[in-house]
Amino acid sequence: MQRLSSEKSHRVGIDIGGTFTDLVLIDDASGERAIGKVLTTPDDPSEAVEQGLRGLLEREDVEASRLKTIIHGTTLVTNALIERRGTATALLTTEGFRDAVAIGTEHRYDMYDIFLEKPEPLVTRSLRYGVRERVLDDGSVLRDLDEEQVRAIAGELLERGIGAVAVSFLHGFRNPVHEQRVAEILAEEAPGVAVSLSSEVSPEIREYERTSTTIANVYVRPLVERYLQRLEERLRRLGFDGSFYVMLSNGGTASVETACRFPVRLLESGPAAGALAAAFYGEAAGFSEVLSFDMGGTTAKACLIDGGEPLTSTDFEVARVYRFKKGSGLPVKTSVIEMIEIGAGGGSIARVGPLGLPKIGPESAGADPGPACYGRGGEEPTVTDADLLLGYLDPDFFLGGRMRLDYGAAEKAMRKISDALGVDPLKAAWGVHQVVDENMANAARVHAAERGKDPRKYLLLAFGGAGPVHAHRVARALGVPGFVAPLGAGTASAFGFLCAPLSFDLARSLYGRLDELDWAAANAALAEMEEEGRELLRASGVADEDVRVRRLGEMRYVGQGHEVGVKLPEGTLGPDDVGGISAGYREEYRRLYGREGPDVPLEAITWRVEVSAPRPEILQEERGGDPRALDEARKGKREIYLPEKDGFAAVPVYDRYRLDPGAAFDGPAVVEERESTVIVGPDSRAEVDGSRNLIVRWEK
């Protein structure tokens, strides 16, 4: 990638994972891409970003001043909530309701568990203050705000060293006047304290979820502000003077200012980019229905892509007591790409469980010390150690040869498993590999089944450093017709950032039966949200004519407890639209639940507006070549473990970068690139398509 002119034509996507930080540099003028990968620096993730970006730009001879955009995603918010590493936070809520965040919904997520644990609120009871005020459900004020009490509380917060305050009053989403006044008083009395209002963060019905979301937002806000400020400083030192954006959980991007104001919207920013990359690669390969399978160093994620778009949701939980038990975590009302995540990455630690079987994760060796084979002090057996012992990884070509893997250290660590099981280390390694594959396949089945989908109808799209290593066995276990491994699979999530548009979504609860609804109020709410969203995009330089607006209404049958989202028609809404909206609701209800709903009226609960800029256009780099020249791409042979042979067998090893469109070969085989390895199992046929995706299908 050469420096052609002073014009800014390059963009960079940066994904910070638990083990590696990935970078992708793209020249929008030519479509040419370059990738970088460095170990994450857990104590200060921005350090790895600076190191990786400097190395990538030097290698490609591109000056930082020629970068027009950097888009970044981080797991900082999720990790801070899980590890309880946020700022000391207080809650100001309506008098008599300070225990609502501890009571929750009173729903038992496991009715038969007599030792059931509920998630602890992020704010301890002594820091939850009941404030004298009251707004009714129609927005009218029953009791004025006691401003002197708020001033007294502000003084106490300063004495106790509180750095953040969440304000969530009863029915604040209908009338935010008291919340806004509290923010003004706190700005006067405690100007250094971060404040989040529920009427801004999550203006939606349901007090518990709204309050939990507001607390989570302000709990991590100072941490995110410091991190992004530090990262911006590092980028400016490199000479970058372009636009810096942050990935949101819904697959859009936003300015740093917006990210700092609403950090709770960054919860799934890294995994969301992986889903966007899967949608892009799936479309390039001619598949609009794919199952995204992203396996990195710490976790594995699965996501359904329908019609070229990832499925989204507005209900999310973080820091679950039990990973797969819905209801055991802290609820967060924000738009996210739906996916399932398990602790099954390359660095996931293996041990023998109480039943005498291998157990994988969720603990990870991370980047420091990393798997035993990294030679950085790790002593616990990991998935990467198992893959090395099975011959799936070349110890001399890991990261293109920049990091040599220690086979002896991996074998020594694996003896902790093999000795306990009474087998040799290789058998133990295969057991670890097999268990992690089944865990991921089971998670994908659960994810699909919960959404009424059959995973066997989807093609698996595998990426991440470890994804293509395990894709064949996971795909076989799922019963899918094959899998796709894109070129540059090891850094696909970082590439996903470059596929994301600038976007934002807003919500406001305004409930009522459709046949009795105040349509003037509903239209006013939709118009206000649209204008607010457009203003956010204008601030990022997006022209009004380029803004895409999508409106949704969350509705339910009268008497039900949960809603279903329905796309709303364009223009001003009124009684004449009730029939069309109702028909859309019933169709979506039937799709979700496979049956007709009751013959009762509908009621609207929450209105949503999504505003977005056009998706960035990414040119596909064209490359010709002779698809018959497989001998040139063949690097040699290597013995890998094949359970079908009950042992090791020598298979051909191909150079991923020399496999041109049209190249085809039979498995078993190994395909190597610098950041990941594809294992093609027996009884399969691999072919490189026009976009250089490696498509593997099963032979009949």
Please give a structural write-up.
The chain is globular and about 80 Å long. The chain is an alpha+beta fold. A hairpin with a 4-residue loop joins strand 13 and strand 14 (300-306). Helix content is 31%, strand content 27%. The model has no long low-confidence stretch (mean pLDDT 89). Helix 10 crosses helix 12 and helix 11 packs across helix 12.
Q: Tags for this entry?
A:
alpha+beta, globular, about 700 residues, 33 strands, 6-stranded mixed sheet
Number of helices: 17
Instruction: Estimate percent helicity.
Output: 25-40%
Oligomer category: single chain
Spatial gap, N to C terminus:
42 Å
Class inferred from helices and paired strands: alpha+beta
Strand content range: 25-35%
Shape: globular
User: How many β-strand runs?
Assistant: 33
- Unreliable spans are none
Q: What does the main sheet amount to? A: 9 strands, mixed
Overall mean pLDDT? 89
Provide the gyration radius in Å: 26 Å
List the helices and strands and how they pair.
Layout: E1 10-16, E2 20-27, E3 33-39, H1 45-60, E4 67-73, H2 76-83, E5 89-94, H3 100-103, E6 128-131, E7 134-135, E8 141-143, H4 147-159, E9 164-168, H5 177-189, E10 194-197, H6 198-201, H7 207-237, E11 243-247, E12 253-255, H8 256-261, H9 269-284, E13 290-295, E14 300-306, E15 309-310, E16 312-318, E17 330-337, E18 340-342, E19 348-352, E20 358-364, H10 383-389, H11 407-421, H12 425-449, E21 459-463, H13 467-478, E22 482-485, H14 492-497, E23 503-513, H15 519-538, E24 548-557, E25 564-567, H16 578-593, E26 602-612, H17 630-633, E27 634-642, E28 647-655, E29 664-666, E30 669-672, E31 677-680, E32 684-688, E33 694-698
Parallel strand pairs: 1-4, 4-11, 5-6, 5-9, 9-10, 13-21, 21-22, 28-30
Antiparallel strand pairs: 1-2, 2-3, 7-8, 11-12, 13-14, 14-15, 14-18, 16-17, 19-20, 22-33, 23-26, 24-25, 24-26, 27-28, 29-32, 30-31, 32-33
